[in-house]
Every structure is written in structure tokens, then in C-alpha cells.
Amino acid sequence: MSYGSFAERTGFSLTPWVKRLLIANAAVFLVSLVVPLGFLVRWFGFTPAEILFRPWGIFTYMFVHGGFWHVLFNMLVVFFFGPPLEQRLGGTEFLKLYLLSGLGGALLGFVFAFSTPVIGASGAAFGLMLAFAWYWPNAPIYIWGIFPVKAKFLVGAMVVFTFLATMGDAQTTTAHFAHLGGLIAAGLYLRFGGGGGQGTPAFPGIGNSVRGSRVTIVQQVRDLAADRRENRATSPRRRRPIPETADEPARGDAVTAGPDAELLDEVDRILDKISASGIASLTEQERAVLDEVSRRRRSN
Question: Are 56 and 121 spatial neighbours (Cβ–Cβ below 8 Å)?
């Protein structure tokens, strides 16, 4: 499963919280190769009936996995879908989405698997997949690296399959309830929490490809930042000198005057803001400025 063309368009890179989550899960899995898995499940898994005795399990269960393939699938989801989401949301909101999705997977166990232990980051992983399809519904995801499927169709099929799977016998449905809980928690976060604001497209909007394409702001920022570095290196802009009298026009480099110079100054300010606070801190007006400058750049 991969999304090569989307990753190239958005400037894919491994982001800070994605790295930390991958390292933490890999470290716990290595520990499980030495320490008996039963011990880890008992003390760090989550069993709703024992929450009063081991309350930390509602968080730590996300880092305990039952085997190599279990941790591999979940971490592949984090690896592929996590970076664009962290770039889109910012580190704090991304971590909130991940943890809330994991908590959703655990909490659904109170209703359907009260005495059954739950382990693994599957709830969090399913939440990330839903969030990816929410923001980029038309991004192609390549199954086995060969067959392209739009994110909205792949995740939609997984939602249906997960729901149907919960109707099986009780011994095999615990994991599917965790998946379903992660999907529900992520959906609530995206709809009502910090992830659904600033004009983001809704998952049911199957035809909303135009608004979905606006999320290429990551690439816009990278391009504009590269242009700024190049322009400063080749022809650094100078401030216009203060006029000696009120009637005397300012002397200086004509390139810095006019609306274009003001627009570039605004881009500089926005890029500095992104560097300090992340993309999620931008207002709609600031995003519109980047869209306009990017449009001009493409037309040239």
C-alpha cells in the first residue's frame, strides 16, 4: 500500500511525531521478543473490566502488539499516512488525532468486549486512514504498489468491512470493534474537533476534488521558500531609504516598490509564521495569499 504520486506532490518526509511513534512501537515490540507477551498484555494491554486496577492500559495498549505482522501493518499505516497529516494538522493536533482514535478503539470495548484484553495501534491506524481520506479523498493509494484506488473508495470499503465484521462471533470481533472505535473517534474529531476547521473537505463530499486539491499548500510553501532563498542569494532586496523631505520620493531599488513587493513581504511573514507555529496556524486569508502567489508562479 503506497501513494507515490501524492507523496511526490506534497513533499513527503518523515515528520517528528511520526518518527517518535515508529520508534516507540518498534522499541516495545523488541521488548516483547524478550519479555513474555502474556506479561505485557496483562500489565500494559487494556481490559475494560480491569481499568480500575490498571488505568494506564487505556493508553499503553496502543504500543503492545501481538506479533510481527500486527505491528508491521499498523506502523506501515503510520509511516505512509502520518507525515502528510502531521504536516497538515501540526504536531499537537496530529498526536491528538492519533491518541483519540486509539482511545476510541479502547472505549468501544466497554460495550462489546468488557472482559477481553485489547492490544495494538489498529484503532489509531484506522483513524489516520480515515483522516487521510477526509482531507485528500481523491489521492491514489496503490495496493501492493500496482493497483491505484482513490483514498475515499479504499477507506469507505474498509469502513463497511469493519462494520460487517463486528457482527461475527464474539471471539473474533474484538479487534474489529477496536477498528470501528478508531474510525468513530477520528470521524468525531474531524467533524467537531480541531481537524475539521479552516475549510477542510468533508469525507462524504465525493465530488469535492477542487477543495481537496487546495491542501497542496505544503508544496506551495516549499516552492515559495525555495524561491525566497534563491532570490535572496542572487539579488537581495534592500529596504527603501527614508525620504529626506516629505515631498521627496524615496530613492532605492525599484524592485522593492509597488504591490508585488508588498505581496512578497507578506509571503515572507507567512513563511516565518509557518516556521514558528506550523501550517495549521495559518488563517484563511494567509492561505489565500499563498494560493495567489502560487498561481502567479505557475503562470510564469
Answer: no
- Decide: 174 and 106 in contact? Cβ < 8 Å: no
Question: Any idea what DSSP says for residue 150?
Answer: E
Residue 99 lies in a domain: yes
pLDDT tens track for 12-52: 578 999 999 999 999 999 999 999 999 999 999 998 888 88
Clarify whether residues 216 and 173 are in a common domain. no
Do both 176 and 30 map to the same domain?
A: yes
Whether residue 191 is found in the same domain as residue 234: no
Q: Is 242 left (phi over 0), alpha (psi -120 to 50) or beta?
A: beta
3-state SS, residue 147: strand
Structural domain contains residue 244: no
Q: Are 101 and 185 in contact (CB under 8 A)?
A: yes
What is the span of the domain harbouring residue 23? 4-204
pLDDT at 246: 47
Measured in degrees and rounded to the nearest 5, phi and psi for residue 251 equal: -100, 145
Verify that 187 and 39 share a domain, yes or no.
Answer: yes
* pLDDT, average across residues 72-80: 93
pLDDT value at position 194?
62
Q: Is residue 245 part of a domain?
A: no
